[in-house]
Amino acid sequence: MESLQLRLLLSSVLLVFVLNAIPAARCNDEEDNLFQGINKYRASLNLTALTKNDNAECLAGKLADQFQDQPCTNTTGANTIPGMENQFPNFPTLLEKCHLNVTNTRDGIIMPACVPNLVPSLVLSNYTQNVIYSENLNDTKYTGIGINTEKDWVVVILTTSTPEGGYTPASSDNAASSPSSRITFSFHLFFLLLGSFFYALN
What we know:
- With about 200 residues, the protein is of the alpha+beta class.
- The protein has helices at about 1-45, 55-65, 90-95, 120-130, 130-140, 170-175, 180-200, and strands spanning about 50, 110-115, 140-150, 155-160.
- A four-stranded mixed β-sheet has the order 1-3-4-2, with helices on both faces.
């Protein structure tokens, strides 16, 4: 009987790990593919590569959450007027959740796009072939990038190296909202429960 309980415990541990890790890994793949695609695009124009900005990624995640229930239409994403993030009355709150404010984000640019099923080639072309978004990607003042996805939505934020657009300061809370952090948390939970399992065996 005790052996059965231990097997059930181990099965529960593995289930928790799998359910937490797989969706996060999928999001990571989508975001990493876009990150690499954008940097290849910039390299083709002899521009320096953009570096990941965790704070911008945090805000991109908050905005993607806001967009996720909006349908893909001709009036969403890359076809909208830049600055559409301001349509959310809780935008200042979203900034605060990532330890940001208007002062350290005003020189950055937020670029949402909606692509059914987030097909990688279509997502990339939404940024590199759209007139407004490609102009931003071609701009040498942008040095950093934050990307996050939710359902059919992707939000890209470009940052600068200036205090007014650097999306600083860094915050430990930001990492907690990122997909990579969720995977790390899952690993910690997995090994914690696994340790409990072996302790019970002894």
